[in-house]
């Protein structure tokens, strides 16, 4: 996804989106399971971020790996979830995801700027469940 590549060009953080139709449990717990299943906990500096969306259930969660969570407050992720849900309520799904990715990218670049030898450790494609 172009917006993910652009955000990641300024940070060593890794951002992914996972879409599912329904979430039958707590979305944060489901996002954590998907995070591990996608191997997002295996980045060199533990700098993965997952944006989880269960569109039919209208549930979202955004979680960061341990390296990020040492620098970025839990409230930041909660605010990004609220931001995303506000867009979704208007039916602006793509716009909401892109705005949220850009905001996350801006925050990550302050704590984890792109390094000269930075490599893309995770796929930028959307995963589906």
Shape: globular
Distance between the termini: 18 Å
How big a fraction of the residues is strand?
A: 15-25%
Strands, total number: 4
Rg, Å, rounded: 13 Å
CATH topology: Diaminopimelate Epimerase, Chain A, domain 1
Write the layout of secondary structure elements.
Layout: H1 2-8, E1 14-20, H2 27-37, E2 48-54, E3 59-64, H3 66-69, H4 74-89, H5 93-111, E4 127-128
Parallel strand pairs: 1-2, 1-4
Antiparallel strand pairs: 2-3
Helix pairs in contact: 1-5, 4-5
Overview of this protein structure:
The chain has five helices and four strands. It has a four-stranded mixed beta sheet, sandwiched between helices. It is globular and about 40 Å long. The chain is an alpha/beta fold and about 130 residues long.
How would you sum up this structure in a few lines?
With 129 residues, this protein is an alpha/beta fold.
Comma- or semicolon-separated keywords:
129 residues; 5 helices; globular
């Amino acid at each position: 996804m172009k917006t993910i590549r652009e955000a990641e060009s300024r940070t060593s953080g890794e951002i992914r989106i996972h879409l599912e139709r329904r979430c039958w449990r707590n979305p944060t717990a489901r996002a954590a399971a998907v995070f591990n299943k996608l191997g997002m906990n295996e980045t060199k500096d533990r700098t993965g971020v997952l944006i989880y969306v269960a569109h039919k259930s209208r549930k979202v969660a955004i979680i960061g790996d341990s390296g990020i969570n040492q620098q970025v407050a839990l409230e930041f992720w909660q605010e990004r979830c609220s931001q995303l849900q506000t867009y979704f309520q208007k039916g602006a799904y793509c716009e909401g995801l892109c705005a949220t990715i850009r905001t996350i990218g801006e925050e990550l670049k302050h704590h984890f700027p792109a390094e000269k030898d930075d490599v893309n450790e995770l796929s930028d494609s959307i995963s589906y469940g």
